[in-house]
Amino acid sequence: MSDNIIINIYEARILAKEEIMNYFNERKMLMKYEIYDLAVLGCGPAGLSAAVNASIRNKTVIVIGSDYCSPPLHKAQKIDNYLGFPGISGADLLGKFMDHFRTTGIELISSKAQVINEMEGAYSILVQEEVIQARSIVISIGIPYRPTFPNEEEFLGKGFGYCATCDGPLYKGNDVIIVAHSNEGETEANFMAEICNKVYYVPLYKNPGKLDAKIEIISNKPAELITSQFVEGIRMKDGTEIKADGVFVLGGETAPDRLIPGLEIEENHIKVNRQQETNLAGVFAAGDCTGQPYQVAKSVGEGLVAGLNASKYVSRLTRR
Ligand SMILES: Cc1cc2nc3c(=O)[nH]c(=O)nc-3n(C[C@H](O)[C@H](O)[C@H](O)COP(=O)(O)OP(=O)(O)OC[C@H]3O[C@@H](n4cnc5c(N)ncnc54)[C@H](O)[C@@H]3O)c2cc1C
Fold it and tell me: Quick one: pLDDT at residue 269?
């Protein structure tokens, strides 16, 4: 394995922001020309509330969320404690939130934010192959992150990563394993198939499709990373092993402090004050990701506070 694998793009971002921009340019990633006032990460109750309230304050807003906004709310069969809607199903309540949201005309990108980088007073957010820029951010990405492998944190940048598109060039000609929680992993797997010697794809969802013929699909479930100083592969639940130079977990939850380096975490939640401010200027957080109780009303309320305070922050920044 090449030594340069220990310096992945995540670390490079912290070390040299200019280099990252060169990297984006080399990869011909699309940089949206517009700088939004606010980018909201997550389109559950907290994110939608933040977006709607910032939009009412005349701010330009973009929401980055999953295909299926709020999987937990969608699963709730009956909600009895959201004021005004006794007994409503989670799916119907979410439908009402979405209907309201759509009246605002706010842009919604159905994808997850991968990494965020602060540069010259604005935040650059990598979403698939696109870079979105915003002056402020509301993080509303739901319940705290659960790792896929027990010790994955320890091996981040040592053959383990969360963004194959970012680290791909470091694995040129090597063998990699992609463990994907959703079909979002397919695009990255196809990209890796172009540059790697061998790509194993371990889908943790049903009916994978759109994969390059060179990719080998593994249907067993993964159990743990095989490691020495670096990651050397994965062991499956049935005891079989797959050896590789790199392992990526894609389409799952991303730990917030990995999304934005330097973000303060307290007891596994994003630390905020009553203004929903985090320790980073212009970065706010709302909803389940800030702590219990995990409830819709709390998420909507915190989303409102975060959206309003992000709007104030941008007004001060731009004096409008
Ligand atoms: C079975 C069940 C029953 C429930 N019953 C009730 C109830 O009766 N009453 C009640 O008040 N609450 C209930 N809840 C809880 C409620 O659904 C949550 O508290 C609420 O959905 C939290 O809203 P949120 O916006 O903080 O997060 P979520 O609704 O979880 O939304 C977060 C969104 O962010 C997305 N996301 C994650 N990472 C990223 C990223 N990197 N970039 C962009 N987007 C990202 C996720 O895909 C998700 O769509 C229930 C939950 C479950 C599972």
Answer: 94
Burial of 181-195, coded b for 16+ CB within 10 Å and e otherwise, reads ebbbbbbbbbbbbee
pLDDT tens digit sequence for 117-143: 998 789 999 887 789 999 999 999 999
Q: Tell me if 75 CB under 6 Å of ligand 1.
A: yes
The set of residues, in sequence order, having a beta carbon less than 8 Å from that of 299 and lying 6+ positions away, is 44, 45, 46, 49, 140, 286, 287, 288
What's the CA-to-centroid distance between 290 and ligand 1, angstroms? 12
Hey, which of 294, 298, 305 would you mutate to test ligand 1's pocket, going by the most ligand atoms within 8 Å of its Cβ?
294
In order of their start, the domains of the chain are 11-145+254-318 (3.50.50.60), 147-250 (3.50.50.60)
Tokens of 50: 């933040």
Characterize the bridge pairing of strands 130-139 and 30-41. parallel
**Block residue for tokens 């799952």:** 252
Nearest atom, ligand 1, residue 294 CA? 19
Report the predicted TM-score, pTM, of the whole model to 2 decimal places: 0.80
Q: Which residues pair with 235 in a beta bridge?
A: 224, 241
Q: How many CA atoms lie within 13 A of 95 on its CB side?
A: 8
Pocket perturbation via mutation, ligand 1, pick of 41, 141, 298 by most ligand atoms within 8 A of CB: 141
Q: Which residues contact 179 (CB under 8 A, 6 or more apart)?
A: 148, 185, 202, 204, 222, 234, 247, 248, 249, 250
Whether ligand 1 lies within 6 angstroms of the CB of 42 is answered as yes
